[in-house]
Amino acid sequence: MAKPQLQPVAANQQAPARSTDLQRYYHDMLLIRRFEEKAGQLYGMGLIGGFCHLYIGQEAVVVGMQAAQKAVDSVITSYRDHGHMLAAGMESRGVMAELTGRIGGYSHGKGGSMHMFSREKNFYGGHGIVGAQVPIGTGLGFAHKYKNDGGVCLTYFGDGAVNQGQVYESFNMAALWKLPVVYVIENNKYSMGTAQARHAAGELYKRGEPYGIPGKKVDGMDVVKVREAAEEALAYARSGKGPMVLEMETYRYRGHSMSDPAKYRTKEEVEEWRGKHDPIDALRAIILEEGVATEESLKEIERKIKDVVADAVEFAQTSPEPDPSELWTDVLIEM
Amino acid sequence: MAIQILMPALSPTMTEGKIARWLKKEGDAVKAGQVIAEIETDKATMEVEAVDEGVLGKILIPAGTENVKVNEPIAMLLEEGEKADALKNAPLPTITKAVASKEEPKADARPALSVVPAAPQPAEIPEEKEYSKYVKLTVRDALRDAMAEEMRRDPNIFLLGEEVAQYQGAYKVSQGLLQEFGDKRVVDSPITEMGFAGLGVGAAFGGLSPIIEFMTMNFAMQAIDQIINSAAKTLYMSGGQMGCPIVFRGPNGAASRVGAQHSQCYASWYAHVPGLKVVAPYDAADAKGLLKTSIRDRNPVIFLEHEMMYGQSFDVPDEEDFTLPIGKAKVMRKGSDVTIVAFSRMVSHALVAAEKLAEQGIQAEVINLRSLRPLDTATIVESVKKTNRLVAVEESWPFAGIGSEIAAQMMEHAFDYLDAPMARVHGADVPLPYAANLEKMALPQVENIVDAVKQVCYRQAA
Lengths: 335, 462
Ligand SMILES: Cc1ncc(C[n+]2csc(CCOP(=O)(O)OP(=O)(O)O)c2C)c(N)n1
Ligand SMILES: [Mg+2]
Description:
The structure holds two protein chains of two kinds.
Chain A: H1 15-44, H2 59-68, E1 74-76, H3 82-87, H4 92-99, H5 133-147, E2 153-158, H6 165-176, E3 181-187, E4 190-191, E5 194-195, H7 196-199, E6 215-219, H8 223-238, E7 244-249, H9 267-276, H10 279-290, H11 295-318
Parallel strand pairs in A: 1-2, 2-3, 3-7, 6-7
Antiparallel strand pairs in A: 4-5
Helix pairs in contact in A: 1-2, 1-10, 1-11, 2-8, 4-11, 5-6
Chain B: E1 3-6, E2 16-22, E3 29-30, E4 35-40, E5 45-49, E6 54-59, E7 68-69, E8 73-78, E9 134-138, H1 139-153, E10 157-161, H2 177-181, E11 186-188, H3 193-205, E12 209-213, H4 224-232, H5 234-237, E13 247-251, H6 267-271, E14 277-279, H7 284-296, E15 301-305, E16 313-317, E17 330-333, E18 338-342, H8 346-359, E19 364-368, E20 371-373, H9 377-387, E21 390-393, H10 402-413, E22 423-425, H11 436-442, H12 446-456
Helix pairs in contact in B: 1-7, 3-4, 8-12
The complex binds thiamine diphosphate and magnesium ion.
Magnesium ion binds near residues 159 and 188 of chain A.
């Protein structure tokens, strides 16, 4: 894949708007990166347990998609969900405290890394069963259409999840009933340790074709290209034409989860992506090149993020463990 | 302020490891995310990445050192503009603060085992009232009326399933609903159980109240992951945010001569799962009153119908908005000598058996469970206190069945009241056969109940 080429100022976009947009994307992507690095560190220190899947390398996907969304839209994804939550505007404190299993976490410590939600931000999880979020996202799309609220559900899943039968059950219903859903395949090239070439036949963006669902392959390391594709797909779904598939070509720098030393790929491969295609480095270069912002103002963003993450870490360690009574609550809604 | 870099753990179980090599040397600038060292355990090698930006001030543990404890400082990082002498009085980074979980567990944090169960409290549900007027309805029509009444009340309720709309229901349960509510709210689904069960869950998260019909519960096996992992567990995993108001309904248990794959009772499967309610109506009043309540419930409800009951007629209270509470069993017949507990179609067998037993001088009390989760243990215990003998009947297999659960509950709550070991009447522990004679042998019959009652009453079996 070529080095991400960020578009020059689009004809339809005024320079000041572009300037604030690019700085915001830079901020949002860097926040995810720094948050995840800290999460990795806390995991290494034993403060986070179980499975912990980091999003490092894939930040442009969720930040670009989020940039094109409306507040009414809903989002659902897999267990690799920290980035999606931060992009949705959920507090880094609450996310980090859920990772450490504390009462201040979004699920009061009862969900963990893979199971967090925010009704307020229309974030519907956080699902640990590979592919299960796809019918659920399709149902969220069904609800948008039923209520006629103009919303679209962005349903994210991995290149591995693409092989689940329920994905095609969902494609069929979504196309049949013209549900407002954008299916975002985050193709990070691996399903755990199995490379795409060893697990998937054919092109992933074409997987919706038999159902008449248009698909598009997108450079998922370029936040502006992602946003442009997202705008098109969201407009399509919102207009009542039905679902669309976006395949995001991206890469995860870290192992599948924290306990994966990633022996199934070469250091050179990782270095190639990290060194030449990093979405944050690329955007930083563009911002400076175009004079959108100064080195000093980017440093200011970086300092702010550092403080936000440090504050989240502090909160995640000082927030108490859930009270023993929490064991018994939230099993059923009392009627 | 200098930052300590600590020995990381590769996994939750790792306690120590080896520093295989340093990729940066003292004085090197490092950026967040850069690999600075490699560590090894007997299981794996992993890279250590810098989390902060700065200059590698000092390597505290040289490459090749074995048995380095997790969380031991291995290097010091100087921040931009800092001098090496900042290292002398470097404070510990905030992240090494003691973990709360290392504190002594509080007394009330002991494992939650049901070793000494509390006596069951009678559910705080009023006794069923007397009704002045009744109408005759089939179970089929009662189910349809329940859905129609609820759908008239709340526009967010919709019915989705195979053949529910134009075909009017594979068993004609949804007769007329398409005509009244239109195809937005009565939706024919493709044959795609996992897909439409998951779609229903998503719609429920999204603010609707779906009724998902499975043509039979046998096919819900294709969807059981969505029912349990998505519908039942998400409220808990979200700390109470993500309620899932949904009803999964359809015929359960053995129909007639349809073989093993179409004849299974799933009561104990679903009743096993916290986060679900499981309801099994017997007659038309149960069907109507419980289905209306299930649709109103804000939790996922598994509603187990019985094909053999659809066409049977019963009295249903003729009053506006008749509902029945979930979690309350019904005493169908009073008796003093033995308690027979049953649910769904088996209530009918139990009632017939009770008549036969009465002819032989044994007065049986028959309890219709109505709800399997929550189970109305208090009503069973109250009856056993009086009769001192118990027979549990179910269509399903014996192992880990509803009868097994009732037996366990009686050990815990009614042991001192039992004058004989409880008996179970259940389906044969085989896949259901097709041949008429074998099928009959495999399913509980009235005679089996009569025999079991005589056994617990220490009377000779006839
Ligand atoms: C149904 C199911 N099967 C297997 C797993 C174990 N598992 C978790 S993640 C994963 C790989 C999924 O890869 P992909 O969909 O590409 O997502 P990524 O992790 O790359 O984001 C597997 C096999 C699971 N959680 N659920
Ligand atoms: Mg993948």
